[in-house]
Amino acid sequence: MSSSPSSPPPQRREAGEGGGLPIPVSAAVVGDDKVLAAAQHIVKSLATSKNAADDMIRILSGFDHRLSSITSDLFPSPSPAGTSDPDPEAPGEQEPSSSSSSSSLADFDAAEQLIHLWDTTPEALVFEAPEDDAAHYLAAVDVAVDHLSTPAVSGRAGVAVQLAMSRLEDELRHLMLRHSVPLDASGLYCSLRRLSLGSMDDLDTSSEFDPATPHSQDGGGGPDTARSASIAGNNPFEDQVFDLVRPEAVDEIRAIADRMVHAGYGSELAQVYCAIRRDLLDDCLTVLGVERLSIDEVQRIEWKQLNDKMKKWVHGVKTVVRSLLTGERRLCDLVLAASDELRDECFVESTKGCIMQIRNFGDAVSVCTRSPEKLSRILDMYEALAEVIPELKELFFGSYGDDVIHDLEGVLERLGDAVKGTLLEFGKVLQQESSRRPMMAGEIHPMTRYVMNYLRLLVVYSDTLDTLLDDSGAGDVDHNILHNGTDEDQEYLKSLTPLGRRLVKLISYLEANLEEKSKLYEDGALQCIFSMNNTLYIVQKVKDSELGRILGDHWIRRRRGKIRQNSKSYLRVSWTKVLSYLKDDGHGSSGSGSFGSSGNSSSRIKEKFKNFNLAFEEIYRSQTLWKVPDPQLREELKISISENVIPAYRAFTGRYGSLVDSGRNSGKYIKYTQEDLENHLSDLFEGSLGSANHSRRR
Q1: Any idea where the Exocyst complex subunit Exo70 C-terminal domain is (predicted)?
Q2: Domains in the chain: how many in total?
């Protein structure tokens, strides 16, 4: 305590006095004898032991040096006069009822004197004085409250109680402020920053399909691990219950609260208690980074800033409920144990601002413009709130808590609606995206990367999304989205989870859009390459993630079949014309023996070789610049081409080569050996100019 044990509360001087000893108010009103008698009675009534009497005499003598003449020998009884029942059989005693009444009034006189004495020094604090002083003051308050119903002194008791309650309000406010424990901002900041480093920033999407943005690239960690790093990471503050008031002050605060409740000052107690606790919890929210923002302010915030605030809200909600509110509930139960109703009311009122701030931000986010990049954050918010609502029901109960829980369940429902609305908007974006610039090399479109990484991210929230999308039912998906619409397809759709059906629908939108984009290529062969690249990318993203578990083998087999169809179409469109020049159309053979009379046939064979060379070189020039990123698909295409071209070329040159070799400039027509062709074919689909030195003259 801050005051020295021997220092009394300072006293008010009379108006106009310039110096001298302080004169207590009581001394200005009554004579010297009455002062001594009153002081003696105070000590005799309230002292609990000889040592306590000595302490009280020392304190009172500080008011007036004449009071030091009182000695503790005048008080043989160790108990205060008013605390022991009189002995009805003691000789010389009055009738028991008369003795008890007289003793009770004497106790009140002493208590009243002490209350008035402290009231003369409003700047002094009882709980900053020696410990015994606080105990004596509280005992005096108890006596005054007990005499509120005593007709002889009820008026005086009311005044004394009013003065005491006013002081106790100030004492309560001082104790709660002085002994409050602020949240450790530095430690919490480091914790939240560490969690944010593992966030989903690398997977956040934008409304533009920009291949340079991180979400359009294939990162190392992948979306399946991002959420576990950021949301399920260890937050050391999340499950730690904070003592926001020093434990050593709780008993003193409770002692004040008990007397205010007993005196009928519960509303004044609640007003002081709730105001202080509410402000402290608001400060804690600021430390956690949960700001007080209106709906309009949230609507105007740029996405990068909003994203950061949403992350802090997610961590903040868990910390608030599991640490702050749990600690606040415990404090209410300890301090306000005298009244169950007041305890619940004060807890709700103290935390109302905190809960309202959490609720308002959740509501503001739920009505924000629907855009795909916000979906993962809204899902994080939904899951965080859904996770803590059962815990909140353990903290908020009764009529006071019902409204709080109902409000937060409303926020949860609106966040769920925002998730479903954002998914719906995402589908519209896929259907309406109409960029007209084709990928020059026929490679994977940025939209494909964007969508598949986005869908892989959604799978992390599969349990939540299954719950939210369950009310849509199987009818949410158009059964024509799968080719042919066979019975097998229908059974497949019915077997999917709600999220699975939505994923099938979204990927079907992507595939339809890619089909339209393939038509931007004038070259039919490049259309096939583009379709193969993008379909294979989609299949790989599904197969290598939880998407594969949700969509199943049936879906993957369908897409692999589509890749094979595109491969056959590519060979037909690109190489049919080339191979037509190597067909045997009945112009004779090298063994016919009629070369001298077959000049016309020889010319036709030369023309075929010439046309083959031109067509092959044209394909080589263009298709070496085309790109097939997947090495396995690229190699399979080259093998398929070789299996069609090389045998045909070998057979044609073997049968008709002699017709050309017999003439001059034969190398002009038979420019390539079988090895030359194989070397040239190895350059296809690499996305760069092929080697110029593959061919050799025969």
Answers
A1: 311-683
A2: 4
